[in-house]
Design goal:
Blueprint lengths: L2 H7 L5 E2 L7 H11 L11 E5 L3 H10 L5 H4 L2 E8 L16 H15 L3 H25 L3 E5 L4 H7 L6 E10 L1 E3 L10 H4 L6
Antiparallel strand pairs: 1-6, 2-3, 3-5, 4-5
This protein binds flavin mononucleotide.
Length: 200
């Protein structure tokens, strides 16, 4: 599917075929595409939870105020991030670069992130957002639908998935064959209201 067609056809789909499935090949193709999403300094701090256990899905659905797609969709992926990834073996993030590059990048990373909690958090959310869009468009390109979700109790979800210290939850995404198309688009703002030249 053409990229622009996938962008136009991606919608937040709330109703899935409960008997539907995503092949392992398609799931892996989507997730491997997600891993090519950009991150600052290439730190790849996203961490993904694929929720396959029906009981855990039900617990998550309760934490998501009963939203049907949480249990109906073939797949549920929770996009998390390790806010401390910048200091966990960072040389891995430039493993294929020359030693001189690594020698420059490592202190830069430290200077950029150390002691800046809000920045670490912002960065994690930015990266989850970009990864989410890659996931949703890749899924659409393969004929599946998705719904990004933040409609859940963050603390409850963190407890259910045993979110480690220093990690956060960006969003969840449901994925699978749809049972019902999304409603018509709710109303898009015009470009000339949103795009300014040079300054606000
Ligand atoms: C970060 C994020 C969180 C969202 N959370 C939910 C959610 O919890 N439940 C839901 O039904 N839709 C959720 N949505 C879907 C939005 O309502 C939807 O994307 C928006 O209305 C635009 O519709 P479209 O995606 O079909 O173009 C969320 C979307 C985003 C981007």
């Amino acid at each position: 599917m053409n990229l622009f067609t996938a962008i136009e056809q991606r919608r937040a789909v709330k109703h899935y075929d409960p008997e539907g499935s995503v092949s392992e090949a398609a799931f892996n193709q989507i997730m491997n595409a997600v891993l090519l999403s950009p991150t600052s300094y290439n730190i790849q701090h996203w961490r993904f939870i694929r929720v396959t256990d029906p009981e855990i899905r039900e617990q998550i659905q309760a934490a998501a105020w009963g939203q049907a797609q949480v249990t109906e969709a073939a797949e549920l992926i929770i996009l998390c991030a390790d806010t401390q990834a910048w200091r966990r073996d960072p040389q891995r993030y430039w493993a294929n670069t020359p030693a001189e590059t690594q020698a420059v990048m490592l202190p830069m990373l430290e200077a950029f992130y150390a002691g800046k909690d809000q920045l670490q958090r912002d960065e994690a959310m930015r990266s989850c957002g970009i990864a989410a869009q890659t996931l949703m468009l890749s899924a659409k390109a393969l004929g599946y639908d998705t719904c990004p979700m933040i409609g859940f109790d963050n603390e409850q979800l963190a407890e259910i998935i045993h979110l480690p210290e220093g990690h956060l939850i960006g969003m969840m995404i449901t994925l699978g064959p749809a049972a019902r198309a999304a409603n018509p688009r709710a109303g898009q703002l015009p470009l000339d209201e949103l795009l300014r030249e040079n300054r606000f």
